[in-house]
Design a protein that fits this description.
Blueprint lengths: L1 E5 L15 H14 L1 H8 L4 E3 L11 H12 L5 E3 L16 H6 L4 E3 L4 E6 L2 E5 L11 H6 L8 E7 L17 H9 L5 E5 L5 E2 L6 E3 L17 E7 L6 E7 L4 E8 L3 H13 L6 E11 L1 H15 L4 E4 L5 E4 L13 H16 L5 H16 L4
Parallel strand pairs: 1-2, 2-3, 3-4, 6-7, 7-8, 8-10, 13-14, 14-15, 14-16
Antiparallel strand pairs: 1-11, 5-6, 9-10, 11-12
Helix pairs in contact: 1-3, 7-8, 8-10, 9-10
């Protein structure tokens, strides 16, 4: 038996830093990743698709998001089993029970709204652990497998949430206990655990039968989410119970974090080269953590660089919390401007203010000196 394991589609997700047409393109890419599962299923011979929670980014979505998402699921063409997660729990306001979802749900889409076993076909079951609210008070995965027997049925546990060995908050009552999963696997009660919630493709434990698929399209920067953009093709031998897992990259967007120390014009030029060499700029988001001390001339070059790439990338800018750039006028930096009298005195005052660094007027002085350099470059001074 072969199926596709995916999770955390979070359809309807927005990112505040995406402006202009970048947000609609990003939203379309998330839907395209879903619709593309049909081709991947045909390529791999998958019988069905399981989605381990957070199909939608929220229960309150614009009608067009719901309709377009359901149409993307329809195009997959094989059964698609959806598990409510923490973003879209099966509570009173659930998207899954809305009139629109109910009316437009394709025949190949099944919502696993009750905990426990659901038959896929004779001899194969999905054991579902849906979220009934945003704050469960127990290990939903352990509760879902409770009472099941090793009776020869091949079972996939579909669950959502953090696993205790990976989660930094051991007091969370909803944590999935790895020991309980491994015990159920060892007893033959279940044969594979398909997890959602962690957006990076991750194997849990050492047995190769517990996986987070990660989100099929990136949702966060690579320092937080190092390995997104995958769907897992899972094979289970229905006779022996042996499992093999193969990852398939489907994501097309990248959220990149670059840390750079900038102290010279050469450093700024190297950053420019690094940004220039990044491919697929229209589908790439770049946050820059910049530290160092630059002259006014080099800071002006950096500003010109960032301005250019802000127009080429889906988004590019500084990560404010991790950016600390000082601007100190270099000795002799303004000697050759050909200024005299009052203008020369004003420049000296600006240089002194800029070098003070910790005064309220330092930033204004930096900006004024940079403007002066730009005007001189254009022959206007």
């Amino acid at each position: 038996m072969r199926f596709l394991h995916t999770a955390d589609w979070q359809l309807g997700m927005t990112r505040h830093f995406l402006a202009g047409d970048a947000q609609p393109r990003y939203s379309a890419a998330r839907r395209d990743a879903v619709a593309g599962l049909g081709a991947l299923a045909a390529q791999t011979g998958a019988e069905f698709v399981v989605v381990a929670g957070d199909v939608f980014d929220d229960n309150q979505l614009a009608p067009e998001v719901v309709s377009q998402s359901l149409e993307a699921m329809r195009t997959i063409g094989i059964p698609v089993y959806l598990l409510p997660g923490n973003h879209d729990p099966l509570n009173a306001a659930s998207v899954y029970t809305s009139a629109l979802f109910t009316a437009e749900r394709p025949d190949n889409v099944v919502v696993l709204g009750t905990a426990g076993a659901h038959q896929v076909r004779p001899g194969v079951e999905i054991v579902a652990a849906p979220w009934p609210s945003k704050r469960p008070t127990c290990d939903l995965a352990a509760a879902a497998v409770q009472g099941l027997l090793a009776d020869g049925t091949t079972r996939i546990l579909l669950a959502h949430g953090g696993v205790d060995v990976l989660d930094p908050d051991p007091t969370n009552p909803a944590l999935i206990r790895l020991a309980a999963l491994e015990d159920a696997l060892d007893r033959g009660v279940i044969h594979y655990v398909a997890l959602g919630d962690k957006h990076s493709c991750t194997q849990v434990g050492a047995g190769g039968r517990i996986w987070y698929s990660g989100s099929p399209e990136v949702t966060n920067y690579d320092d937080i989410e190092p390995d997104p953009g995958y769907v897992l093709a899972v094979d289970i031998d229905e006779t022996s119970g042996a499992v093999s897992v193969e990852s398939h990259r489907v994501g097309r967007w990248r959220f990149v974090t670059l840390h750079r120390q900038l102290d010279t014009g050469r450093d700024v030029a190297d950053l420019d080269i690094n940004l220039d060499q990044l491919p697929d700029k229209e589908r790439t988001v770049v946050q820059l953590a910049l530290t160092g001390t630059l002259s006014v001339t080099d800071r002006a070059a950096l500003d010109a660089c960032l301005d250019r790439y802000s127009r080429l990338f889906a988004w590019a800018g500084t990560w404010n919390r991790h950016t600390d750039l000082a601007v100190v006028p270099a000795d002799g930096e303004f000697i050759d401007l050909g200024l005299g009298g009052f203008a020369a005195d004003a420049v000296e005052e600006l240089i002194a203010a800029a070098r003070a660094g910790d005064t309220d007027g330092a930033d204004d002085a930096h900006a004024a000196l940079a403007l002066l350099l730009r005007l001189v470059d254009r022959g206007a001074a």
